[in-house]
Design brief:
alpha/beta; Phosphorylase Kinase, domain 1; 3 domains; 45% helix; 20% strand; elongated
Length: 392
């Protein structure tokens, strides 16, 4: 008798296949599955984690199931069984995904952490970005496609080559042979801030010189206007109104932006510098990039200078030096007034974002939250009146 197990929700029915499906039991298997899905109109998922083999008779069963329910897809397929589906053309006819290799991160060095995931070094040659959200597969595949897009366009990018399962979460694996992040290089020798900032700017300029097609990546200005609209309601009318106007007047450009550009997301592999963490790719005016960079090096540490030490591993004064060197090399000037003007623009956009983020976040301590909100409001009330435009 064909042993069939199912798991049913309102929107999906998962049927767990096991053992072999061949001419000896294909009819029995089809009957059992057909009875299990009778009257169900949601998504049909065939979980093949325990399926050892499927013959042509079994493949015909799959075809008929696909005709009965066009949403049918197969998941957790072993390499051997996947090869059968691939050779027979099934991978072109329907959604079939391989099982994910399982790895452990016990004892692994944490080399970076962002809003979406934590990056671990598994061995000298390999790192894995483990996503915090357990249902992150779509996000992982999206980041892989974004990384490939950037790579093809000439941006030096590390492309993930595998998706793995880490406990109850998923991760992307990168091959980075003996690579070190700029954060690691800088903590080993703080005097290298100027040198590494100059190298980071080379990557930044390459990325910003890449012009995208309309709609090719998310529009950063659209997102930023949401920040400004929120902030407008929490600032004095004159300041809030001008802030909204300044945001609206930023040109609608299609430059490629990384969105989370800092020293933990740049890896040195031999003599090559590579970007990682590409899930925040967007397009828009480069001032939005500089707002994010300002926050990473200074803005998020405005009321607690130890934040940048915890986040990037470097003292606040070194982070400030790195930020100023980044501006110097990107804009090709040592003029303090010019550099301060650009920092003010980045700060306005950055603190507008932080004001909304802090007011909407429930996990901050009430004291810290109040201080951060107060700082953002005071800074915006100071800088917005003296600023004529937010772009360069």
């Amino acid at each position: 008798m064909f042993n069939l197990q199912c798991n049913k929700t309102d929107n999906a029915l998962t049927v767990f296949l096991n053992g072999r499906i061949d001419s000896a039991n294909a009819a029995e298997a089809e009957k059992a599955i057909t009875e299990a899905i009778a009257g169900f109109s949601g998504e049909l998922i065939l979980d093949a984690a325990k399926l050892d083999y499927i013959s042509s008779a079994g493949l015909r069963v799959i075809l008929r199931l696909k005709k009965l329910n066009k949403t049918t897809r197969i998941v957790n397929v072993s390499s051997d069984v996947y090869e059968i589906f691939d050779m027979t053309g099934f991978t072109e006819m329907m959604d079939i995904s391989k099982a994910y290799r399982k790895i452990s991160i016990d004892g692994c060095e944490v080399i970076g952490e962002g809003a979406n995931g934590i990056v671990y070094r598994i061995d000298p040659d390999t790192i894995v970005k483990v996503y915090k959200h357990p249902d992150a597969l779509e996000e992982i595949h999206n980041e892989r496609e974004l990384a490939r897009k950037a790579f093809v366009m000439g941006v030096p990018t590390a492309i993930p080559y595998d998706v793995v399962q880490v406990g109850d979460r998923y991760g992307s694996v990168f091959e980075l042979l003996n690579a070190k992040s700029f954060a690691k290089l800088l903590t080993e020798d703080l005097s290298r801030a100027d040198e590494l900032a100059k190298e980071s700017v080379e990557i930044l300029k390459t990325m910003h010189a890449t012009e995208l097609k309309p709609g090719e990546l998310p529009d950063k200005k659209e997102e930023a206007l949401v920040w400004a609209a929120f902030a407008q309601d929490h600032l004095p009318a004159e300041v809030g109104g001008k802030l909204m106007r300044l945001f609206s007047e930023i040109p609608q450009t299609r430059n490629m932006l990384h969105g989370d550009f800092h020293i933990k997301n740049i890896e040195r592999q031999k003599d090559e510098n590579l970007l990682i963490d590409m899930d925040t790719l967007a397009m828009g005016h480069p001032i939005f990039e500089f707002a994010a960079i300002f926050l990473a090096y200074k803005g998020f540490s405005c009321i607690d200078h130890e934040n940048v030490k915890r986040f990037l591993g470097i003292p606040y004064d070194v982070a400030d030096t790195f930020w100023k060197a980044t501006l110097k090399y990107y804009f090709g000037t040592d003029d303090p007034a010019k550099l301060q003007e650009i920092e003010n623009k980045a700060a306005i956009i950055g603190y507008t974002r932080v004001l909304r983020r802090t007011m909407r976040k429930a996990t901050e301590s009430e004291n810290y939250k109040a201080r951060m909100i107060d700082f953002c409001k005071k800074t915006l009330c100071e800088l917005v009146p003296q600023t004529d435009k937010l772009y360069f």
